[in-house]
Amino acid sequence: MKKYSDLPMDYADATIVCLAMDTGIYNIITLDQKDFNIYKFKKKQSFVIMP
């Protein structure tokens, strides 16, 4: 979470990011595409956003 300390992240976004890191599931359904296009994981992997 320190990686994104300069970006405003609400509780729901933080929960999804933490769950994705714990489970390895990066497919999400969200209307908040702007933020989730920014978040990346250790191997430069990003979320797969399904509209």
Total count of domains: 1
Task: Enumerate how many helices there are, as a single number.
Answer: 2
Question: What amount of the residues lies in strands?
Answer: 5-15%
Percent range of helical residues: 25-40%
Terminus-to-terminus distance: 25 Å
Low-confidence stretches: none
Secondary-structure map:
Elements: H1 11-23, E1 27-28, H2 33-36, E2 48-49
Parallel strand pairs: 1-2
What report would you give on this structure?
The protein has 51 residues and is mainly alpha-helical. It has one domain (2-49). The chain contains two helices and two strands; from the N terminus they run αβαβ. It has a two-stranded parallel sheet. The chain is globular and about 25 Å long. The chain starts with 10 loop residues before the first helix and ends with a strand.
Which keywords apply here?
about 50 residues; two-stranded parallel ribbon; 2 helices; 2 strands; globular
What's the short story on this structure?
By secondary structure, this protein is mainly α. Helices cover 33% and strands 8% of the residues.
